[in-house]
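Hi there, hope your week has been kind to you so far. Thanks so much in advance, here it is.
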Amino acid sequence: MKNKKLATIVAVGLMAALVFVGNYLQIKIPNGVLITRIHFGNSMCILAGLLFGALPGGLASGIGAGLYDLLDPVYIVSAPFTFLSKFAMGFVCGYIAKSEKRLGSETAHTFLSAAVGQLVYIVLYVGKTYISQRILGYEVGTALTASATNLLTSSVNAVIAVAVAVPLFAMLKKPLEATYFRDIVDARRERLEHTAKNIVIVIAFIAIAALAIWLGTLKK
């Protein structure tokens, strides 16, 4: 058990570093109100969830992306929400990936996990963009324009993330099963005994995400 916990900590740290670096492989796109980006950070978030499951994948995603925002003056105010939204991406992807119930082939299930994780992030990110713009006093048209631009770039990032992460997962899964990370990579999600805990996590996440949006707009 101790070895598995240590392996999980190492896995979170390793994937958080990859998420952090992946965010620097980017193209920044000003949209008149905000600056949005096409980057490879989300690929590593999805890979973390696919390889190591819900909580490790969520933590690695949130920590890596949150640190990137903290070190960039343009995004520093958004760091709390970035942590939460990226956590959601990795968590949901890992939760589905490690499910006992599989959708058809392993490849189909992997694609589903990656796609749903990305969809959750896109909804949160675009929703946050619109709400924050309205709170800051921008007109509906301006807020919709910013949201539409972010939706477009988020969709491009989603395609890149799935296209990169799924093949990487297929290549890395078996080699990692022969390493110290075997128990995490091979783990399946716990069943009914952890349902209540997962519900609490989701409710807490929604509450904190709403607070992060509000605080972020106040600081701006």
